Amino acid sequence: MQSILRAVGYNSLVSFEMARVCTRVPGGITWPHIRSAYQAIPGYSAPVLGYLPQGAPASGALANLAARPMDEALSSVADRYRMTYTRYADDMTFSTLRSLDRSTLTRCVSEISAAVSDARFRLHRKKTRVVPPGARKIVLGLLVDGERLRLPRHTRRGLEDHVRGVAKFGIGAHVEHAGYSSLQGFVNHIDGLLAYGHGVDPAWSKPLAAQWEHLMNAAGLTAQERRLW
Q1: How many beta carbons lie within 10 A of that of residue 22, not counting itself?
Q2: Between 70 and which of 11, 44, 75, 119 could a Cys-Cys bridge form, CB atoms 3.0 to 4.6 Å apart?
Q3: At what angle do helices 59-66 and 68-80 cross, to 10 degrees?
């Protein structure tokens, strides 16, 4: 991480300090081959290796900085094939209006894999798909093959099933039946999905959200109570 921060203009010591703030050091794990560059500071001589915690405020920005060389290489690949390259976290999409034959697509995927490998990442082969014209296209969990973004049917059905289950059996019984270990976690999950659904398809989500709020109020879990969690 220190080298990433150096690359965007911070000096060596500031980069080192920022890397220390942004990483977590696992207790008891030592790496004897690591030596601190700042021998004059005793606290920096500990032979430990930190890691970037998932979900920390700075993690997304640092991950994007780490992936910048890969993004530049993949953008070049996309330009050569007259495609548009987009990435969110570890989800990459190449889209085009052109009609491409199988040999061209095979060559394109090979170049993409090489660019990812050169950047010291690895392509997930089982999640690599070529979607032909006319097929359903899902990007980041959203259908993108129409005039507007849409929630896939299985997403809508899953959320409707949860709300229906709470209405029929009660929240405690449904949480247990659905395999959730925490009632709070389940409620937060449904609240989040409904907010997500409202951002994509408010006409569908609004009546479902109203039903959910009625169920939560009946269970004594008002919106105000949930905000205090």
Answers
A1: 18
A2: 119
A3: 50
